[in-house]
Amino acid sequence: MTAPFAFALLKTDGAARRGEIVTPHGRVQTPAFMPVGTQATVKGLTPDIVRATGAAIVLGNTYHLMLRPGAERIAALGGLHAFMHWPLPILTDSGGFQVMSLSQLRKLDENGVVFRSHLDGAMVELSPERAIEIQALLGADIAMQLDECLRLPAGPTEIRRAMELSLRWAERSKRAFEGRARAGYALFGIVQGGDDISMRCESARELTAMDFEGYAIGGLAVGEPQAVMLKIVEETAPRLPAERPRYLMGVGTPHDLLEAVARGIDMFDCVLPTRNGRHGMAFTRHGAINLANARHAADPRPLDEQSAHPAARSYSRAYLHHLVKANEMLGAVLLSTVNLAYYQELMAGMRAAIEAGRFGDFRAATIAGWGRADIPAL
Amino acid sequence: MTAPFAFALLKTDGAARRGEIVTPHGRVQTPAFMPVGTQATVKGLTPDIVRATGAAIVLGNTYHLMLRPGAERIAALGGLHAFMHWPLPILTDSGGFQVMSLSQLRKLDENGVVFRSHLDGAMVELSPERAIEIQALLGADIAMQLDECLRLPAGPTEIRRAMELSLRWAERSKRAFEGRARAGYALFGIVQGGDDISMRCESARELTAMDFEGYAIGGLAVGEPQAVMLKIVEETAPRLPAERPRYLMGVGTPHDLLEAVARGIDMFDCVLPTRNGRHGMAFTRHGAINLANARHAADPRPLDEQSAHPAARSYSRAYLHHLVKANEMLGAVLLSTVNLAYYQELMAGMRAAIEAGRFGDFRAATIAGWGRADIPAL
Predict the structure, then answer these.
(1) Among partner residues B41, B46, B319, which is closest to A84 by beta-carbon distance?
(2) Structure confidence by residue, pLDDT tens digits, B4-25
(3) Given the residues B141, B147, B256, B269, the one annotated as active site
(4) Overall pTM surpassing 0.95 (yes/no)
């Protein structure tokens, strides 16, 4: 369990990359999608179900876990892998994004952030050093630096201030991480710079000079149009070192994933497959399907007869419609499962296409396939 | 899939019975516990998870299914087994109990009941003949007669009126069932008579003369003390034919099951393991455990290290406490699973003990074991 962290770039097809990440808890084939296990659980799903969708790594949220049950508590119970009974790799975010989106922020300065817990109103501090400490207590295979994530649109002065602060926090995060000497574990830096390409490039250059095990592009999927996001990805990704994994944080729809892989991204996380599953939406090769719609009430067809996952083949749309209308928990469970399985199938398809040098064809065929469902893919 | 319904009494130990039921969808070893799949789903659990707890038969609720999605809809989709993807036996109740407990009853007369749907206020009729028709549309392996179920306490005049009406409905149910000629499917009569032993005996005698494939004891677990329920079971069970299965409806706690098997009952259903699981309570060999209690917050022990089911062995009490406090769906899923697995383990233990002629010892040891947990077994 102490294989050093490594990334191998196995094949490229245009800007799209096929790789493999090695972590202390196992290997991850890239491009990879990481289901989100916010509070030490992918909502509603047992670890066995998550694994059976094809997921090889999950994401845990530092912000939620530091507040409840607490990082020291999880460490005392053997770390996050043991706590949530997930034996494969875990990436944790730094907590910064949720501090800024969920809590009542009290102070943000050079040192870090002070905020009120959304659970009990307690004042909590988070600094680059504390974020690293928490992620070490959790036992994350891949930790993320603390950064400041702005909402877009924002002005250039504000974007520069946050980008430069994030760079200084990156340096402190790296020092703190190296001070803990967790052999084989990795720390990723996060590119900031809002929607300003030149600031993104500056951030990427400075971070690369610090030599992280991997690089994330943060501060996207925060309200900007898809074209803006893709433009930034397209300009930023090639400025990151080819021999390190690239992670686009909090993204996205199936179409976002396809387009971001086409622009050189290796890793993703997003709540969409599970959150939308809880709200009655299925993602399939035929596009997104809103099961609450009455047109499905008598439809005996499964969501996707070609899926490799039994949940997409075994239950009729009529049954899933019934579960959604009756507000039955099993509807959320099955649709979250179907969605995660589809995301993994999409990633596996992209990996195979890159290996075969046919990524462009795969991308076109996949997008064409989405046209046949209830509503177009998001 | 058309084996005729049959029951074999394999062994007795005192009044406790070890038997086997044969249905068109498979065999059920008795004493048996049936998880409740109210709205065509055991709440929160996939059919695979339900099977893995050891369940060999589930119960469906006619009342809920007739209102949503409708019996004709389910029939058009291939019946309830196909609809909910449960290939093993299904018993359906007649709908009477829920009509009287959930809906706004508009009229109850010789013909049947008219009620307002709790979903949309629509006026709906249910007669003995319609209850049989619905259960045939659902494709239940075992159907139940329509009966009138009183709340206790009730006066003797009221108890007699409801008991006699239930007998006349039993006859009409049987005629309707035989008219449909579903080879191999079974219809059970239901003994009523409130807490009046002589009326219970009269009901049992009259029903036995009608020759049902099995007999239920209904109208219990509706608010009376356990001692009253057990007294009625003790007096009623031996007046039912030994060569037919005996089903105690809507019961109960682990202790209820143990005591009712000791008095000659073969089959049970109850929402308790799943409902209490959704509310943070675990049933184990150590008794019932309230996971919401802060004493579990740092407890690394699993719920039951001796359980045959991984869910009871794999997760710490601290993790389950966390899921319950964080109101995470997975808490409900895991505790429902653990509880159903414990109920099945308890039934399997009773079956083995009866086979070995050691039921009395098993009962005493099981009750003693419950003293060691958070709170005594209910």
Answers:
(1) B319
(2) 899 999 999 999 999 999 999 9
(3) B269
(4) yes
Q: What is the residue-wise DSSP string for A270-336?
A: -SHHHHHHHTTEEEETTEEEETTSGGGTT--SBS-TT-SSHHHHHSBHHHHHHHHHTT-HHHHHHHH
Instruction: Kindly report the nearest CA distance between residue B293 and chain A, in angstroms.
Output: 14
Beta carbons of A373 and A289 less than 8 angstroms apart: yes
CA distance B68 to chain A (A): 8
Annotation says B120 is catalytic: no
Active-site annotation of A, residues: 93, 269
Interface residues on A facing B, Cβ-Cβ cutoff 8 A: 39-46, 49, 68-69, 73, 76-78, 83-85, 297-298, 300, 311, 314-316, 318-319, 321-323, 325-326, 328-330, 332-334
Tokens (6 digits) for A120: 């009990």
Residue A145 to residue A143: CA distance in whole angstroms:
7
What letters, b where the CB count within 10 A reaches 16 and e where it falls short, cover A193-205? Answer: bbbbeebbbbbbe
ipTM rounded to 2 decimals: 0.97
Residue B94, classified by CB atoms within 10 Å of its CB into exposed (0-12), middle (13-18) or buried (19+), is buried
Q: Judging by DSSP bridges, how do beta strands A36-37 and B16-23 pair with one another? A: unpaired
Q: Do A300 and B78 touch (CB under 8 A)?
A: yes
Identify the three-state secondary structure at position A11: strand
Phi (first) and psi of residue A283, to 5 degrees:
-100, 130
